[in-house]
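Throughout this chapter, every protein is written as a compact record of paired, labelled lines. The reader may check this reading against the record printed directly beneath this paragraph:
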Amino acid sequence: MNQQIVSNSIREFSQYNRVLEGNNIYVEKKMAIYYQYFKKLSTGQTPKYLLIGCSDSRAPPNELTETDPGEIFIHRNIANLVIPTDLNLNCVIQYAVEHLNIHSIIVMGHTCCGGIKAAMAQDSVGGLLDLWLNQIKIVYEKNQELIESLENENDKLDCLSQLNVRAQVMNIWKNPIIQKSWQKGNPIMVHGWLFRVETGYIEELLIDSQTPEEMNKVFALKFKLDSERILSKQTTPLGSPKNNARKKFQSMQKQIIQHIKKQKENAGGFQKTNDLQQIREYVQNCQEL
């Protein structure tokens, strides 16, 4: 076997072991502060934020925000995209909103993003990646005049990074899960962040908080909430099968009452077996309705 290959393999294995050793150090540090830390962590999570970030290894959300496990619910993909048909992401959003009851969603992009840079170039990066990056190219196409007006190449990349975050924020506001939450009286806040890799700081992008209300009506959905469904059940349409059954029930009751009155007027009362049997049949028919 080539000596260089052996040497590289040993080096890679050493680096891999360093990652596992780092976990041991992490556990020791946490337990030194609070011995029951991981036992408490295992009881459940109550994060207040969902963060949708880029998979870039230089942009770890917890480390950048000095937050502990359990504080931020995190989803990451290439270039922090919110694609409406992404089943994985939509499951994350639904779970965060309907089960974890988060109150804010954050889309965090970053500078020096390889996905942004690739989307601005015409060179193919291969297969599914080209298809994925088309979502950024759409943003680039819509804002090409603004981006190309900048002279510095890094400024162009940063500009598209910001515009991409804004576009993904808008995609979240268009999401049916978020719109339903708003209509139910739980206004999820949506924020856009840009992490600057070269400085370490996060910049909050100024995004109009009124956007959900002013969103194009083409994307605005109306939901029949649970309270409205209950009300609609109570006010059944006249021609519905349920309403017809109710009318039959009421008619049957009237027949029973009339029959009982008639029997009381007779001297024999309820002595006749066939009269009692007839009443029982009326009652049974009524119950079946």
